[in-house]
Design a protein that fits this description.
The protein has a five-stranded mixed sheet, with no helix packed on it. It is built from no helices and 28 strands. Strand 5 and strand 6 form a beta hairpin. It starts with a strand and ends with a strand. The protein is mainly β and 328 residues long. The chain has a single domain, classed as Methylamine Dehydrogenase, Chain H (7 Propeller), CATH 2.130.10.
């Protein structure tokens, strides 16, 4: 059942945040950010390893940041560009030793290391972004006749599309349990830009690409859906504005939707233009942080937004972890 709502009508009472706090931790990071709980953040970043004159070198590491102390601790060294995935206490990340690639995975703090080996013939093993565990995608057509389905979190069912040649299929949701039937989602598979899980809402956020080849000359429209494990679907639409055409991710909070925009407005490389982290409620978009942000991550209580942000203010730019508390 599709419930169309104003972008934040079910999430907030007012249209503007009167008080909020922004903290620049100063810790260098890359795009991924995960909340362990309401007070701890896990993210890949860079630790200063040596300095010689004006030149410093940095090593890639996996950080855990405690908001109480605002001090990061190194959980592990990681290779440059290696994957990191965290979901509800389970972690997976790449390491490299003696020229070989390994994976460490398991409960956070009790990971088990194994060598990364190619999939066996006929199998297509990939890491499920919702569970951080391996899934055999070669079996996607065996879940339900006529469909290709990928598992969501344990007990939440599947998402996918019809197995048809030469068509642009709708996305479908298959609830968990026996004898359930696929539920059509209001978005085509080719229009899905990103799909994430919101711990705060207990639902999946499906983002639609702002522009398609067909409507490239129209006013862009940012749109997202909340898909609950029960099958309920809520639709949210972004108000038009300069932040569109370059949004990088949506995540619901207690006060509205947090939106990362990289809309520089065609200005110089050192001018952020309209880029930043916005809070959107109804038809109001309020910029909370100016800069070039990564995807936003929201704490389980819905109050804090974390993202890696590059300020775009001059040479020697550093992307650092920012934390925004919208419940202050």
């Amino acid at each position: 059942m599709l419930v169309k709502v104003a972008l934040a009508a079910v999430l907030l009472a007012s249209t503007y945040v009167e008080a909020y706090e922004v903290v620049d931790t100063g810790v260098l990071g890359r795009n991924e950010v995960y909340w362990i709980d309401n007070e701890r953040i896990l993210f890949p970043g860079y630790e200063k390893s040596s300095a010689s004159g004006q030149h410093s070198s940095f090593r890639p590491v996996l950080y855990v940041l405690d908001l109480g102390t605002r001090r990061p601790t190194v959980h592990s060294e990681i290779p440059e560009g290696g994957f990191v995935c965290y979901a509800s206490g389970y972690i997976g990340y790449a390491v490299r030793k003696d020229g070989k690639r390994y994976v460490r995975e398991g409960s956070l703090g009790a990971e088990i290391e194994r060598e990364l080996v190619p999939s066996a013939p006929g199998r297509m093993i990939e890491r499920n972004e919702f569970t951080c565990r391996d899934v055999d995608l070669s079996a996607a057509d065996k879940v339900h006749p006529g469909f290709l389905f990928i598992p969501l979190r344990d007990g939440h069912g599947y998402y996918g599309w019809e197995k048809k040649e030469g068509v642009n299929p709708l996305m479908f949701f298959l609830p968990a349990g026996k004898h359930t039937k696929p539920i059509a989602l209001p978005i085509k598979a080719s229009e899905k830009r990103r799909m994430t899980y919101s711990e705060y809402m207990g639902a999946y956020v499906i983002e639609r690409s702002e522009l398609t080849r067909k409507d490239a000359d129209r006013t862009p429209s940012g749109k997202a859906w909340l898909l609950f494990p029960t099958g309920k679907i809520s639709e949210a639409e972004m108000p038009h504005g300069p932040w569109l055409r370059a949004t990088w991710g949506y995540a619901p909070t207690r006060k509205g939707w947090s939106v990362s925009s990289r809309a520089t407005g065609g200005k110089s490389n050192f001018d952020p233009g309209d880029a930043g982290i916005y809070l959107v409620s109804g038809n109001v978009a309020q910029r909370l942080v100016v800069g070039f942000p990564g995807t936003p991550a929201v704490s389980p209580d819905g109050c804090k937004v974390a993202a890696i942000v590059n300020p775009l203010t001059g040479p020697g730019l550093k992307a650092t972890l920012r934390i925004i508390d919208v419940c202050k």
